Amino acid sequence: MQLHKFYSSLAIRNDKKIVVLLIDGLGGTSHKDYGYKTELEYADHPNLDRLASRGTTGMLTPVLPGITPGSGPAHLGLFGLDPISFNIGRGVLEALGIGIVPEPTDVLARGNFCTVNDEGLIIDRRAGRIPTDICEQRLALLRDIRVAGSDIELHAVQDHRFVLRLKGADLDGDIDNTDPGSVGAKPRPAKALTPRAETTAKIVNAFVDRALDRLKGQSAANALVLRGFSMLPDIPSFHELYGLRSAALAIYPMYKGLARTVGMDILDCGETFPDQLRTLETHWDTYDYFFIHYKYTDSCGEDGDFLSKVNHIETLDSYIDPLVRLDPAVLAVTGDHSTPAALKSHSWHPVPLLLVSSTCRRDGSTAFTETVCAKGGLGHMESKYLMGLLLGHALRLEKFGA
Amino acid sequence: MQLHKFYSSLAIRNDKKIVVLLIDGLGGTSHKDYGYKTELEYADHPNLDRLASRGTTGMLTPVLPGITPGSGPAHLGLFGLDPISFNIGRGVLEALGIGIVPEPTDVLARGNFCTVNDEGLIIDRRAGRIPTDICEQRLALLRDIRVAGSDIELHAVQDHRFVLRLKGADLDGDIDNTDPGSVGAKPRPAKALTPRAETTAKIVNAFVDRALDRLKGQSAANALVLRGFSMLPDIPSFHELYGLRSAALAIYPMYKGLARTVGMDILDCGETFPDQLRTLETHWDTYDYFFIHYKYTDSCGEDGDFLSKVNHIETLDSYIDPLVRLDPAVLAVTGDHSTPAALKSHSWHPVPLLLVSSTCRRDGSTAFTETVCAKGGLGHMESKYLMGLLLGHALRLEKFGA
Question: What is the Cα–Cα distance from A382 to A81, expressed in whole angstroms?
């Protein structure tokens, strides 16, 4: 039986509230410039530490040892889904990232404007990273292209990147990239990887042919490539699975979109963590499960800015008390993955987990750091088990077997 | 390959003895009235602690994180079976609990006497919890009911509860509960959930119809409902799988029954732990694997009696030395699940494990507590892996692969 269905088969309803505070990219690695400490070890976070002494800690492995997850698998794991079975394609993720919530019948692809020479060979895969407004201008040239069998939407993302959304009744996303992946080659025609996707591939090719006609003559960004054709995976909602009324408090569109895939309500929660907290308080009685997404730690990690990540951890720490005072039955503080400043990217390192509940077994943790969590009472587990652990601590799972 | 078959494929015989001391419901949670300690942390158990310093510790997760197991899955896990694949139904477990060891062809159900009004609607689902002797009297009214296709046995359990056992050649237990689960409804007819179970459902309904006739006119306990129809899962024995001559030293019938499902001999072992130890000594040469079940810790946990659970742990500790002096090649001390007094029920928390063997890698543990075991050298693992670990330490598994 699939893990989420197993947990679902035991789910019962009660009035206990679960809060997950997700600190994006939380985990770090030992940084040689900072005494071989991680950002979390270097930062001063007395409130999180105090919380650790009231709870129990552990480590979450986002997917499997050594696997660096994208945001999609990392979040699906935390939402209790096996992130290998339920992969979210790049096209869908890109759409979620700009606030589009696809219909289950849509096909989405990530598009890149590129520049080709007179023979149609790609000479710049990113079209000189044209500014977003030029991207918008190019898309405007293409918006009235009509192809039978599908409505076509085009959405600028940033620079040369855009999203192609096909809407229709019988579409299928099992289509290979048209991006040849290197300069000196022509964009490839869209190719169906299964018979079911052949009609969709024809639609894509009809669109691309007409788009290339219209882009002809531009000095840069005179062609396009598509990749990551995908559809929304068929994901059951938290309410269907667990009877949880769930809400997401996320500022960035992608995380709202990811939360939407498991049926969370997306609350309008402002621009800052204090805004998110106020939104949480306002909606406290309406939901059973709250997902609070704190983004800035990840961005600093990606930038390689160790001290800025430290700073954002410390800022977050200063707002922990109002959260704790709401007294959720279960509070989990963790990350979706690690983003060590030393690596300037997502990484495979396990992520610290802190769980506080009256049903906890306190494990003697006195701080919230990687080193403490690695020896914590919850041990190490894959992120996909967190959902069951939260439900268990909230007494929302009945006994398995007699 | 199923886990137990994989271990089985490598099993070899030797003269090394394995002893599993199972302390039922061993694990606890932090209790606010006792300095946020667990029962095991609060108790004084110098002998177990000394044993820990000679061995290696770890944590067992009975099923999966967050899952609270019943006794059936919890024990099957410790016996090396995947507790999700090999679930034991309530009917079978109830039978095991009163000392019935079902044949693989039997169908068993848990029965409840209930009270219905003149229209046949349930007004008391437990018939006022009639005393067991009244339950016996009601069953006596029903014992000579004969239905073609099956022999029917009825066994009182306690209060209004009894076991229905159907014996026959072609029975199938895939039958829905007749218990509607609420007052104001009529008992439902037995309904086959698969075509194979239709004949059995008809037999059940024929029995119930005649039983209701005979119960008519009683002021209470004038009807019955059945639930948890089930058959013994097809479980291979320890001897078949591992060549182990195995014996159980359990006082309570259910644990004898569970041990019987994997083919253990059930030794008559008296009423107390010292009795169990004497029985162990007597049969030391006859078996390779001994399963000693210590029940009282679970019962106290269920009662919410923290200090009594502490007391039973301390009592058990005082008898550890005679056990150690028998010098088994491998001694494991663990639980089937946690039963924290703070929760008054089984729980999902992982269970401490202590393993002592000359083949151990000592991990520096100096006590046997949840906090120590959570950081122990064996790490955290699902209970179903314990069997392989025991066989490994007993040098009873040959090398896998060249």
Answer: 11
